[in-house]
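Hey, I'm writing a tutorial for new members on how sequence and structure tokens pair up, and I'd like a real worked example in the thread rather than a made-up one. If someone can provide the structure for the chain below, I'll link this post from the tutorial.
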Amino acid sequence: MQTQFEELTDAQWQVIKEILKDTRKRKHNLRDVVNGILEILRTGTQWRNLNHSKLTWQVIYYYFRRWKANGTLERLNSSLNAKERTRQNKEATPSLLCIASQSIKSVAFISQHKGIDVNKLINGRKRHLIVDTLGLVWGVIVHAADIHDGTKAHLLIEHCLGYLKRMNRIAEAKSTSR
């Protein structure tokens, strides 16, 4: 886990600002909102423990929930991935992806959406990731560990097919260890 958090540089903010295409006048600065969301992602802190000097955690959480619901976060992720692929002289969208799953033990106070992965003997949650050959994440789904990989992975693949038109192969990452 990363303990230090560095705010967006001016160059990084310009790229994100272009993708957001926000022209309305707002009460809260969206750069501060994005910095708050990135602080949560990078440090793993809880929303209520967010130590952001400019905005309250409630404001940042409001934008996070709103952007998650209306697809802004997903659009931002795929746009940044496409820009990075283009920067590395690749097509904007990948044709080959890799899907992997990981089961994680849950802590005692998490009671929703957890189960036992009988293959790995883990009581908790499972996440599926779809990444390209550069390691860029194109899709994620988190669910109870007792649901079979094929069930949820299929939904994630179908979702990615909607915006990754060049995708023609998906490799599955297999692990031999428990």
